[in-house]
Amino acid sequence: MKLSERARNTPPSGIRRFFELAEEMDDVISLGVGEPDFSAPWKARAAAIHSLERGRTSYTTNRGMLELREAIADHVPRYGLDYDPESEILVTTGASEAVDLALRALVDPGDAVAVQSPAYISYGPGVRFSGGDPLPVSTRAENDFVMTADDLERAGAADAEVLMICYPNNPTGATASADDLAEIAAFAREHDLTVLADEIYAGLTYEGEHTSIATLPGMRERTVVINGFSKAYAMTGLRLGYALGPSEAVDAMNRIHQYTMLSAPTTAQYAALEALEACQDDVEEMRTQYDRRRRFVISRFQDMGLDCFKATGAFYAFPEAPYDDEQFAEDLLQSEGVAVVPGRVFGEEGHGHLRVSYATGMSDLKAAMNRIERFVAECERGRAET
Amino acid sequence: MADKLELLDLLLEDARESTDTIARQLGCDESEVESMIAELEGDGAILGYQPVVDWSRVETDHVAAEVELNLELDRETKYADVAGRITKFDEVTALRLVSGDYDFDVTVEGDSMRDVSMFVSEQIAPIPEVTQTVTHFVMNTYKNRGLEFIDSDDDDRLSISP
Ligand SMILES: Cc1ncc(COP(=O)(O)O)c(C=O)c1O
């Protein structure tokens, strides 16, 4: 069969190889997982089951059930966001679909799209699928992976049409304060960039409150905010997300969505509605657990002598690898049976780092950190001898 | 200064956790954790640490019953006086004063149903203030102390994901 150039030019993700290596081995503790170890809150699951029992198995309106959009509108003011459920909210099949729709609605062929790096691996390919050219904006470890005007300048982002940012960040766990975002916002205003803000980890912020770039002066009209239920509500498999934006952007996204998706999964919409209305305690409990694990993991890395910046969001630590990140991750997997993801998979500036997910129960996490500590000590002894 | 409630929360999850790991999770010094635990124990807020046992997986005979007790008190006798006598029995593992149709909710444990019934009829029922006993044998335990006794929620995630 003749395959499209687009498909042929899309490389397999760098995660794939590690996945295959890890799958071949027994007794692996994986800190390479990008999703919660918790199941969705029981009340949300029960609501999904109940909706099935009542036979709620048809499509919903394209934009998603109005009741759900209203619940989302009632939920986001906690981040200072205010959107009209009728015209400014679109419910999507995961944040993934929202990212795809936003890019297709905002990018013309040949447009440059400035993409934060390191970041979630789908952005670059997503930009290409929309016909745009991804322009990586490297954020730096010495700035705790917060994007600066200097980073944007150096990347040539002034000429881009769209800027994609993600805070709290996958893979670094970095968050951005209102002051940090103000610098990015000023750049976006000055160069007339539309901002695509993936805030899927907004609910998992550990020090201070999450700030959305859309709340800064002059930004609401140029920003599409993306969020969803996968991370904070532990609902990855239910595939539900949403986009918030000015009605013209949401209309444009919906125009594509109505042909390519019709509507987000109905069962998941019922679960999401219940999640917003009745599961905030569950979210808080999960957040507390992640926060404890975060402190544990970072302090263990620091004691091992690995440079590990203090991640304040999502569920990832991003320590420096003692040597080449890919080689180290492979050696660690082979000799200690601990899987982590080499930072380079997430972009240029990820080189030399490891993404360590703490979405894993404390007993596995403790065992894994002991194994890593042993391995790092061994490496150091080896180095001292040569 | 780490918070005592947070410390209790962690101990309730796993009281055997090392103070080193607890300190890292709370973001404080190990010595701070140790002194807070000592304080909680000293104040009588923490009375002890026990495992949660699923007896169906241990090769032994073990029977538990929830016993409802009704009391009739006189001017000189208070609930606490009667409770003081009942708690003395080793067979009684929990005793609570409750609202509703009866007064005391007693957990009695023993090696057999016969042992437990005999204990209730020979030791508890004869207490002068006790006017009625209703014994409910525990048939199965599905959850106790926040822990599920049925295997569930296996980790079926992909080992590596973006
Ligand atoms: C930053 C980021 N955005 C989006 C997604 C995808 O989320 P969803 O499950 O809602 O499609 C992920 C999942 O790993 C992510 O890490």
From TrEMBL, chain A:
This is Aminotransferase. Residues 27-372 form the Aminotransferase class I/classII large domain. Homodimer. PROSITE patterns: AA_TRANSFER_CLASS_1 (PS00105). Keywords: Aminotransferase, Pyridoxal phosphate, Transferase. Belongs to the class-I pyridoxal-phosphate-dependent aminotransferase family. Its cofactor is pyridoxal 5'-phosphate. Its EC number is 2.6.1.-. It holds the Pfam family Aminotran_1_2. GO terms for molecular function: transaminase activity. It is an enzyme of class 2 (transferase). It comes from Haloplanus ruber.
TrEMBL record, chain B:
Residues 72-141 form the Transcription regulator AsnC/Lrp ligand binding domain. It comes from the Archaea. Coiled coil: none annotated. InterPro entries: Dimeric_a/b-barrel (IPR011008), Tscrpt_reg_AsnC-like (IPR019888), Tscrpt_reg_AsnC/Lrp_C (IPR019887), WH-like_DNA-bd_sf (IPR036388), WH_DNA-bd_sf (IPR036390). PANTHER family: LEUCINE-RESPONSIVE REGULATORY PROTEIN, TRANSCRIPTIONAL REGULATOR AZLB. This is Lrp/AsnC family transcriptional regulator. The lineage of its organism: Archaea, Methanobacteriati, Methanobacteriota, Stenosarchaea group, Halobacteria.
